[in-house]
Design goal:
Blueprint: H1 2-15, E1 23-24, E2 48-49, E3 62-64, E4 67-69, E5 74-77, H2 85-95, E6 101-104, E7 106-107, E8 109-110, H3 113-126, E9 129-132, E10 137-139, H4 142-147, E11 151-154, E12 159-162, H5 181-192, H6 197-208, E13 216-219, H7 220-223, H8 238-241
Parallel strand pairs: 1-3, 5-6, 6-9, 7-10, 9-11, 10-12
Antiparallel strand pairs: 2-8, 3-4, 4-5, 12-13
Helix pairs in contact: 2-3, 5-6
């Protein structure tokens, strides 16, 4: 019920969004199948979503699904991913091939875990830096996208939230054997993102210790105890300092 309520809140927020002037970009929506190293898709219908207070979102110069282009080299993730997000992400990179950093500002999770892992692999293949600025919030399935960065930066004052996935039948990771294919999908993904087998298992077990209907909150320092974090560069984005409320 909590997850359904969160989705309704998100939908109402979108419907209430005022019109704004920016470049409108269209992209083709394609069907995406995500297969891990074990040859098994993410659990059918699985999603992970944690609501929070609305964030201040930069308007940017172009919009591609949940992504905003801030300038020629920087993009931002400002909403949940879904089944259309891989196509949106690919279209953004095609239009702005110089993008090198993905700012993770308001990332409540995903409505499609399989598509979300696909986006994560695309982030890694492109060699993007993932950066959570002060005030940025990365929750649930958004954490997998943060892990995809070739460098991962989390400023003091950023936050993370983790919990277990849940499939369309209400089953969670603990309902399967630890080495079951549906669990291996995530362990394989973490390995692809640079974790050792021990690190991948420890991180996955930590997230799954919290049921899907709840969440464990972590600050930047606490996240750094589980995954490797990198030092932020000296520059900041002026567009984030003067961000506009987009929704």
């Amino acid at each position: 019920m909590r997850r359904i309520a969160a989705l309704l809140v998100a939908l109402l927020a979108v419907l209430a969004t005022p019109a704004f002037a920016q470049e409108v970009v269209t992209y083709e929506v394609v069907e995406v199948t995500v297969v891990g190293e074990a040859g098994v898709d993410a659990p059918a219908g699985s999603d992970r979503f944690v609501g929070a207070q609305p964030a201040i979102i930069p308007q940017g110069i172009a919009k591609f699904g949940p992504f905003r282009v801030l300038d020629a080299t920087h993009a931002a993730l400002v909403d949940a991913t879904d089944g259309r997000s891989p196509a949106a992400f690919a279209a953004m990179l095609a239009a702005y091939p110089g993008i090198a950093t993905l700012e993770m500002i308001e990332c409540p999770g995903t409505l499609d875990d399989g598509a979300n892992l696909k986006v994560g692999r695309m982030i890694r293949a492109k060699g993007l830096v993932t950066w959570v600025p002060k005030g940025g919030s990365v929750r649930s399935g958004g954490v997998e996208l943060f892990l995809a960065g070739v460098k991962r930066i989390a400023d003091p004052g950023s936050e993370f939230a983790v919990h277990a996935w849940e499939d369309e039948d209400g089953r969670q990771p603990g309902d399967f054997a630890a080495d079951a294919p549906v669990n291996r999908v995530y362990l394989d993904y973490y390995r692809e993102m640079g974790m050792s087998p021990v690190e991948a298992r420890a991180f996955y077990d930590m997230t799954n210790a919290v049921p899907n209907e709840d969440a464990r909150w972590l600050n930047a320092a606490q996240m750094g105890q589980w995954v490797r974090l990198d030092k932020a560069p000296e520059f900041r984005l002026a567009s984030l300092d003067s961000g506009q409320v987009l929704r």
